[in-house]
């Protein structure tokens, strides 16, 4: 079930270094929200703070609120493990578990959530997830083969299947197509358009055409200089961002007149 | 390679007289197989005990150091474990006799009383504690740093990508270890265990000191009747041997050489095979 996310006054730190400053944004359910901006501007950091993945690094912490349908994700007593079960993530480089079969990769999250799941239920969910990721027809005859034998694009769709198998509320994608060829990229973009019927999707991308093609809302992050924190400069409907942005910096960035 | 071949050739040449000798000339008077058999059995038994005890412990230590401990504690602990490898084996032997063995006697008594129906713990309990079990434990501590060092390296190399894949699915730290770290490190664990096994098979002094030897093949781990091991037997018997007895000892050495060689080859094979499913593609 797709949920909305409200972020208010979010500051993200690595130790004493303020990486992202003062982000306030509302992310709509059943839509694709794209985050664009130059490298190092904090958009990936912001994305990872939504499902508390940035905490994996020692010293990382946040101030401010991230609310998902009324539930404070950083509230006291909230286990980051539970947050990650509700908010799935797909990474820049495809990262299927290399020692596991295709089937086991998709089943991994399901088995974590439900230890006693029956084989037939599992079969059904694995098939549904692989169909959901437009991968089923390509792999249905070799589910027992190692996942590392797939192409990069297939591996990335396998990772998407793995992420959606546990029915998360939100799907975060950190440059999901930047390591892929144009055909595979297209497959991923088509997939996003289908998946937004069921999930809230947030995607970080360096590819502005991609943001324009797939997203309803776009946020532009920027950084004032080295050592400065990243900020959300503008957040608007994608059409507006790419035709008539409010901020001069946004226009400079998307038209290529930048730094 | 040349040295290796030279050693092998020496062993074979010197062992031939023992292989040819009539059965009654071999020490013990019942032929070479009857002489080496219990030694070989003792060698393998002690090594297997050591491996069974040390491997899970070493893996646990490596996991703690690489996945759980804060950096400062981790490096201190790793250093301590590595230091275990620097202790001379004779020291382990003395420690085994004077410290460990007496303290294990109550445990052996308990095992005999409560688990006496298992052939391993049938007893009667050795009064000195200088049993196969004790020897195996001493060996376990000696091979612990080898196994732990290797598995630690492998665990440390688990790509962040795989660990994050597991964490992003909502895995707890332990689930992440099971999903990403252990599968990736599996062959490293096997390789480390094999190297440890090689060391345990060839260990001489600690066993020679700790183990109270009498009798032949037995699975009874806590009694005073234990088969010796090949290496310990050579060390103990060699000064008093002459003629065909020396050749017999060398023949037993040849057997040990072949076994440790095979174990090391196997270890190397297993460790190298890791590259195939490292996920580097």
TrEMBL record, chain A:
Any single GO BP term: phosphate ion transmembrane transport
Record keyword Cell membrane present: no
Source organism (scientific name): Blastococcus aggregatus
Xref: SUPFAM superfamilies: P-loop containing nucleoside triphosphate hydrolases
Classification via PANTHER family: ABC TRANSPORTER I FAMILY MEMBER 17
UniProt cross-references to Pfam families, sorted A to Z: ABC_tran
SMART domains (UniProt xref): AAA
Lineage, uppermost ranks: Bacteria, Bacillati, Actinomycetota, Actinomycetes, Geodermatophilales
Transmembrane regions listed in the UniProt entry: none
InterPro entries tied to this protein: AAA+_ATPase, ABC_transporter-like_ATP-bd, ABC_transporter-like_CS, P-loop_NTPase, PstB-like
GO cellular component, one term: membrane
Protein's recorded name: Phosphate ABC transporter ATP-binding protein, PhoT family
Sorted UniProt keywords: ATP-binding, Nucleotide-binding, Translocase, Transport
Keyword ATP-binding included in the entry's annotation: yes
Domain ABC transporter: 5-248
Gene Ontology MF terms in the entry: ATP binding; ATP hydrolysis activity; phosphate transmembrane transporter activity
């Amino acid at each position: 079930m797709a949920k909305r996310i409200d972020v208010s006054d979010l500051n993200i730190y690595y130790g004493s270094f303020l990486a992202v400053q003062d982000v306030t944004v509302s992310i709509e359910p059943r839509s694709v929200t794209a985050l664009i901006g130059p490298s190092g501007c904090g958009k990936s950091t912001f994305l990872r703070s939504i499902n508390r993945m940035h905490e994996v690094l020692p010293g990382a912490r946040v101030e401010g609120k991230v609310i998902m349908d009324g539930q404070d994700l950083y509230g006291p007593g909230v286990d980051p493990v539970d947050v990650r079960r509700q908010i799935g993530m797909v990474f820049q480089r495809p990262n299927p578990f290399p020692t596991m079969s295709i089937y086991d990769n998709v089943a991994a999250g399901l088995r974590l959530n439900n230890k006693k799941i029956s084989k037939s239920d599992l079969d059904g969910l694995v098939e549904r997830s692989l169909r959901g990721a437009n991968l089923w027809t390509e792999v249905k005859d070799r589910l027992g083969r190692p996942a590392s034998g797939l192409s990069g694009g297939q591996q990335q769709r396998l990772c998407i299947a793995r992420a959606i198998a546990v029915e998360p509320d939100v799907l975060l994608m950190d440059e999901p197509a930047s390591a892929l060829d144009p055909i595979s990229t297209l497959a991923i973009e088509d997939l996003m358009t289908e998946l937004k019927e069921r999930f809230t999707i947030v995607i970080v991308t360096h590819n502005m055409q991609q943001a324009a093609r797939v997203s309803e809302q776009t946020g532009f992050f920027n950084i004032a200089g080295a050592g400065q924190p990243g900020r959300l400069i503008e957040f608007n409907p994608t059409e507006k961002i790419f035709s008539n942005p409010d901020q001069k910096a946004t226009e400079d960035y998307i038209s290529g007149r930048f730094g | 390679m040349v040295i290796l071949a030279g050693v092998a050739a020496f062993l074979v040449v010197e062992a031939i007289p023992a292989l040819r000798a009539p059965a009654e000339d071999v020490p013990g008077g019942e032929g070479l197989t009857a002489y080496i058999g219990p030694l070989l059995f003792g060698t393998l038994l002690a090594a297997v005990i050591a491996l069974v005890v040390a491997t899970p412990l070493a893996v646990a230590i490596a996991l703690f150091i690489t996945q759980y401990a804060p950096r400062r504690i981790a490096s201190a602990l790793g250093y301590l474990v590595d230091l275990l490898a620097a202790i001379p084996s004779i020291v382990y032997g003395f420690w085994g006799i004077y410290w460990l063995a007496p303290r294990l006697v109550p445990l052996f008594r308990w095992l005999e009383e409560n688990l006496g129906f298992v052939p391993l713990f049938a007893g009667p309990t050795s009064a000195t504690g200088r049993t196969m079990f004790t020897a195996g434990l001493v060996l376990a501590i000696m091979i612990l740093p080898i196994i732990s060092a290797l598995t630690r390296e492998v665990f440390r190399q688990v790509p962040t990508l795989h660990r994050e894949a597991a964490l992003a699915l909502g895995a707890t730290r332990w689930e992440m270890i099971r999903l990403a770290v252990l599968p990736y490190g599996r062959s490293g664990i096997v390789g480390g265990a094999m190297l440890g096994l090689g060391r345990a098979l060839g260990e001489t002094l600690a066993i020679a000191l700790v183990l109270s030897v009498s009798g032949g093949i037995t699975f009874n781990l806590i009694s005073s009747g234990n088969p010796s091991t090949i290496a310990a037997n050579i060390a103990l018997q060699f000064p008093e041997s002459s003629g065909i007895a020396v050749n017999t000892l060398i023949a037993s050495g040849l057997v040990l050489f072949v076994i440790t060689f095979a174990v090391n080859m196997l270890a190397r094979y297993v460790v190298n095979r890791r590259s195939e499913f490292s996920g580097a593609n």
